[in-house]
């Protein structure tokens, strides 16, 4: 598929394949755009049969975007249930706004109630996050369009059409095909591994003063491709016979990543050790060959994991009015939107909704006040530049329905293609699309777009202000919190391994391993705000060194877990190994109570070559490596 894209679209296809080798961004953008087009066409057909009220068309388009982006459940049935609740919550929100339209103060209070609830219920998982987003966006569009009671029937029809079309496109036209997606991801891993090898060779020939930026960038690209491939593997194969192949493949991908990280670390050594680098290179190529061989031999049943019932994530325990993270976030966002509402109303009594929309969205997927600041500035900048281009395009294309519609669709596609890359770029193209749509429906004026910019700036300022003043959370504090959770999760995994070595198979070891991986991902996300978490330097900075240690710890916990069922270990050996693992778990318990994990950064591990390259499967050597990693953290943390 990647090769076909390159052949079919020449330079553009090569660029897309290089930047998005798994085509995840391309699929998301295509799915979102086709959903909007599909819902638009379905509403047009409904209009031919029985015209709907104008507000119904606006609700249908807005909910089509939410249907494509917000519903993230795994499995067709689970997504259908989520869409039902989303539709119900969205219609209820519109109904209440419609009844309250004559009373502006009541509408404002309702908005704040919806915002508080939408943020708070995120604690219950992806389904309720989607429901909250639906309720908020439906309240937003209802407040903007001000439907009448007579419009509610048509709005209900539009919501149903939007949900059905989005569900059909997601599950029939553009469904997830894990086996095919995995093949594409493996090709990407191989391609990026070769790119890393080329950069390493160039760095070796350029001497000690060569720039290390390309090397770090190549390693990061490889890591991203590996994470995509690992994400295409199910939590557990539906067929017990295919589960060993699935597990072995996941472990092999982790091997590729860790060996690549060791090889990159060796390139930073002073002085460099060519003999050691050659041994790591040999291991790297051997691991890649094993990865490709295992991928070719993977049974299709290994990807049929949806039939396996997954454990529902535990709902976080409520910890108090001030200390509960979900409640703090809900209070922050509600206060920010209230401030934005006041400022927006002072500026315009009819367009203040843009201000609260911005204040709400700048708190989405943020870990700290630094993240909020960056997101708010990105949204304001994207809106500013988008308005300049939007005014120019809408003026030039005035009256040209076909070209304006085509460019609006292209803008929507490009916006969501860049959603995971740049919030500012996404906002720019969304603003251009809105400008063109305003022109199509006959309400475009430059003053209107400038008013939207002003409302956006008000919302961004409100969000940034609240994030710094009310329950402020520094980037370093957020990273430390995530790190503490990571070490506690690792301790639980080691406790389960020790119990299993003694024959006490009470915990789901695989679920614990996945939980450790998710916890590590949380650390990476939280560490983004500490300077540059993946610093482009000759020598990796403290954040990168700490993250490397954490990833290595998770990897060797996984490898050690594979020895639980090893028949070659005698009873006395298993008991001694269990004692060593329990000792490690106790150290992790102490480590999980510290802070300052990213202040200095533990040095890159000088791990025993035997443990990494020749005797990877010897349990005691793995425990020794884990001990060195944990002791390194204990020597640096506070």
From TrEMBL:
Places the protein is found: Cell membrane
Main location: membrane
Membrane-topology annotation of the record: Multi-pass membrane protein
Record keywords, A-Z: Cell membrane, Membrane, Transmembrane, Transmembrane helix
Parts of the chain that traverse the membrane: 28-48, 54-71, 80-97, 128-146, 152-169, 326-346, 380-397, 403-421, 428-451, 457-475
UniProt-listed InterPro entries: Memb_transporter_dom (IPR049453)
Any one Pfam family match given in the protein's UniProt record, by short name: FUSC_2
Domain Integral membrane bound transporter: residue ranges: 340-466
Keyword set includes Transmembrane helix: yes
Entry annotated with the keyword Translocase: no
One Gene Ontology CC term in the entry: plasma membrane
Recorded family membership: Belongs to the YccS/YhfK family.
Protein name, entry field: Integral membrane bound transporter domain-containing protein
């Amino acid at each position: 598929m990647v090769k076909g894209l390159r052949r079919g679209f020449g330079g553009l296809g090569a660029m897309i394949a290089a930047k998005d080798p798994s085509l995840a961004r391309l699929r998301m953008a295509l799915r979102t755009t086709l959903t909007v087009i599909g819902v638009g066409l379905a509403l047009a057909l409904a209009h031919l049969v029985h015209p709907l009220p104008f507000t119904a068309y606006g609700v249908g388009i807005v909910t089509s975007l939410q249907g494509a982006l917000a519903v993230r459940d795994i499995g067709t049935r689970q997504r259908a249930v989520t869409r039902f609740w989303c539709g119900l919550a969205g219609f209820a929100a519109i109904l209440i706004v419609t009844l309250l339209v004559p009373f502006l103060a009541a509408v404002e209070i309702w908005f704040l109630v919806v915002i508080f609830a939408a943020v708070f219920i995120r604690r219950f998982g992806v389904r309720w996050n989607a429901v909250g987003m639906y309720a908020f966006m439906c309240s937003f569009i209802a407040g903007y369009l001000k439907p009448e009671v007579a419009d509610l029937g048509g709005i209900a029809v539009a919501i149903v059409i939007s949900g059905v079309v989005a569900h059909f496109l997601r599950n029939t036209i553009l469904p997830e095909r894990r086996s095919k997606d995995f093949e594409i991801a493996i090709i990407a891993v191989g391609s990026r591994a070769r790119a890393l090898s080329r950069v390493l060779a160039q760095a070796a020939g350029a001497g000690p003063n060569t720039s290390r930026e390309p090397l770090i960038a190549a390693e990061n690209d490889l890591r991203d491709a590996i994470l995509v491939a690992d994400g295409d593997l199910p939590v557990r194969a539906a067929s017990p016979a295919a589960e060993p192949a699935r597990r072995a493949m996941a472990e092999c991908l982790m091997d590729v990543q860790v060996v690549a990280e060791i090889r990159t670390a060796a390139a930073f050594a002073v002085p460099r050790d060519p003999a050691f680098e050659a041994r790591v290179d040999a291991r790297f190529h051997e691991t890649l060959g094993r990865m490709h061989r295992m991928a070719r031999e993977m049974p299709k049943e290994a990807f049929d994991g949806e039939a396996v019932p997954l454990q529902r994530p535990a709902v976080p325990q409520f910890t108090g009015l001030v200390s509960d993270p979900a409640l703090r976030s809900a209070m922050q966002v509600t206060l920010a939107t209230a401030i934005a509402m006041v400022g927006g109303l002072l500026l315009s009594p009819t367009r203040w909704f843009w201000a609260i929309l911005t204040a709400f969205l700048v708190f989405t997927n943020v870990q700290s006040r630094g993240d909020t600041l960056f997101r708010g500035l990105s949204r304001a900048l994207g809106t500013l530049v988008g308005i300049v281009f939007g005014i120019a395009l809408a003026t030039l294309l005035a009256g040209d329905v076909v070209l304006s519609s085509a460019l609006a669709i292209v803008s929507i596609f490009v916006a969501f293609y860049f959603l995971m890359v740049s919030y500012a770029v996404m906002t720019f193209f969304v603003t251009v699309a809105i400008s063109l749509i305003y022109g199509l429906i006959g309400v475009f004026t430059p003053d209107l777009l400038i008013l939207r910019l002003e409302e956006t700036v008000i919302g961004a300022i409100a969000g940034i202000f609240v994030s710094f003043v009310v329950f402020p959370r520094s980037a370093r504090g957020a990273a430390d919190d995530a790190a503490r959770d990571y070490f506690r999760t690792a301790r639980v995994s080691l406790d389960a391994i020790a119990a299993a070595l003694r024959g006490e198979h009470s915990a789901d070891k695989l679920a614990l391993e996945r939980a450790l991986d998710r916890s590590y991902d949380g650390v990476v996300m939280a560490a983004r705000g500490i300077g540059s978490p993946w610093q482009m330097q000759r020598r990796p900075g403290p954040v990168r060194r700490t993250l490397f240690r954490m990833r290595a710890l998770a990897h060797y916990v996984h490898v050690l877990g594979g020895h639980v069922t090893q028949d070659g270990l005698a009873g006395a050996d298993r008991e001694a190994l269990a004692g060593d693992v329990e000792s490690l778990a106790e150290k992790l318990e102490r480590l999980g109570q510290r802070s300052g994990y990213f202040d200095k950064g533990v040095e890159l591990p000088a791990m025993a070559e035997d443990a990494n390259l020749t005797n990877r499967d010897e349990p005691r050597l793995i425990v020794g490596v884990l001990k060195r990693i944990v002791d390194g953290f204990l020597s640096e943390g506070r």
